User: What shape does this take?
Amino acid sequence: MEIIKSILGILIPFLGTVSGSAVVFAFKSNVSHKAQNIFLAFSSGVMIAASIWSLIIPAIEMYSGKFGWFPVSIGILIGAIFLAFTDFYSKKKNKAFKNKTEKLSFALTLHNIPEGMAVGVVFASALNGNFGMEFISAMMFTIGIAIQNIPEGMAISLPYKTEGLSNTKSFLLGALSRNRRTYSSNINTLN
Assistant: This one.
């Protein structure tokens, strides 16, 4: 039974990303700049809200005591410094990203690492009974992450569609939350 619960913990967020990426199939021609901006703004809003209500606030609540916010603040600060360093390094080398789409894809793919760790920790806590975590709470957390992954899939797949990639390639890059250069040889075999 624990294996099925763990598989659910993996699949639910992935299905959110896949469903968001599928938005490209609604567009037969290129996505207008205005539509892309609207989807990107929506995606940003949902991701910020999900970060606050699904990650930051629950993490603060998990720590007891007066300074429960402190470890969470340190984690946010380390993440911000890491992203700032990555941005600085890519500008200095002028090689890391060909365009804004690849930079966005990299940021969202990088963001999936701690997101996956958060889902893993919540499910492990629920399965082991740590922190008073129950399976239903872990499922609600995972569903929250999946909802946040819907606009994430959009945010990656739509810019690739705008750059002229096919719907299938754009969908796969969004569903896998990956950078086009990283998977170009595998994706190019599709068409």
